[in-house]
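Q: Okay, next protein. This is Serine O-acetyltransferase from Sphingobacterium suaedae. I've checked the sequence twice, so it should be correct. Can you predict the 3D structure?
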Amino acid sequence: MTRKDYIEQDPYFFPAFLSKAFFVDSFLKSEQYYIRRYVSFLRKEEFYTFHAPNKLLRYYYQRRKNLLGVKLGFFIPAGCFESGLKIYHYGSIIVNPKARIGKNCTIHGNCCIGSKGTFPDDSPRIGDQVDIGQGAQVLGGITIADGVKIGAGAVVVHAVLEPHVTVVGVPAKIVHPH
């Protein structure tokens, strides 16, 4: 896999270099412009960490990602998300370094995917095509099945093993299949 293929595995629109859309996007610097750059730096860091190890480039892109992450409120370590990550809003997205999230995950702002602080490892395992709503939290060594939608403001502290359901509330409970 080439670096370009690895970076473009996420569903973001990258305007063609030196095109009209490229200049408009670069000039206006919208919310999605910065999010797209953050995810691009994240994927470059992962590429130079796992696929084509290069310490210098790894640290360079890690630094760029972290500087932009401070501006956006993101803390997402390399290697947590599989392909297809989609972030809709900036603002406080925190992911535990040991959390594992499947393909095509969607995250809205103000989310936390973390541990409860217990030993040895209590980080979440989240399946494919999971949609995590605004302000939702997934805490502890739990498993979330494929296709689950986590509602805005939900606090998920128990495993959701049934695929394609919606969970809402504090603590989160299954509402209905979708």
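A: Here is a summary of the prediction. The chain has two domains: 1-72, 82-178. Helices lie at 3-7, 20-28, 31-51, 55-72.
Q: Noted. On to the next one.
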